[in-house]
Design goal:
It is globular and about 40 Å long. With about 160 residues, the chain is mainly alpha-helical. The protein has helices at about 1-20, 45-50, 55-70, 75-80, 85-100, 115, 125-140, 145-155, 160; strands at about 25-30, 35. The chain has one domain (about 25-160): Globins (Globin-like, Orthogonal Bundle). The chain is built from nine helices and two strands; from the N terminus they run αββαααααααα. The protein has a two-stranded antiparallel ribbon with strand order 1-2. Helix 3 (about 55-70) packs across helix 4, helix 3 (about 55-70) crosses helix 5 and helix 3 crosses helix 7. A hairpin with a 2-residue loop joins strand 1 and strand 2.
């Protein structure tokens, strides 16, 4: 009985310390997906119109798979896909980038597009193929055309920092 009480006391103390020592976060893990708090009411952002973080995550996951399995650009993703840690960082960076760019509560913490792609010598054809893979991913989840166009308007200007460096 004393041993059980001691174990329960230690567990309770650990939970209390953990609860009060952690900063309040705006994310919770749900089925291995990050769910962020919904932005305050106002005009609907692209993030809101896309449906929030869960639909963005689904599209990003499909996009990564499309790129990794594409015969033209798949080799660009093979080393990232082979390393689970690197793949997870890449995945979360893409989710954050789309989330933040669309007006969501996320903060992209990765490198600039120029820093990330310098030395890769990505061609215009490879970039265009990547865009096609994103459109396919969005179509898989029936993202409306207006939202696809609005997201493209945010992401396509990055081409100058990605291609030819």
């Amino acid at each position: 009985m004393k041993k059980t009480s001691l174990i329960l006391a230690v567990l309770a103390t650990g939970i209390i310390i953990t609860t009060f020592s952690c900063k309040k976060k705006t994310e919770t893990i749900v089925e291995e997906k990050i769910v962020y708090q919904t932005p305050p009411p106002g005009p609907p952002t692209l993030y809101t119109r896309l449906g929030g973080i869960n639909p963005i995550t689904l599209v990003v996951d499909k996009f990564i798979n499309n790129c990794a399995t594409n015969s033209f650009i798949g080799s660009r993703f093979s080393s990232t896909a082979a390393d689970p840690n690197r793949l997870q960082v890449f995945r979360y960076n893409l989710i954050d980038q789309v989330c933040e760019g669309s007006g969501g509560p996320c903060k992209y913490k990765g490198k600039t597009m120029l820093q990330a792609h310098t030395g890769m010598n990505i061609t215009g054809a490879e970039f265009d193929t990547l865009v096609v893979q994103l459109v396919k991913a969005m179509n898989t989840y029936s993202v409306p055309t207006q939202e696809q166009n609005d997201l493209a308007a945010i992401l396509l200007p990055m081409k100058t920092d990605i291609v030819g460096h």
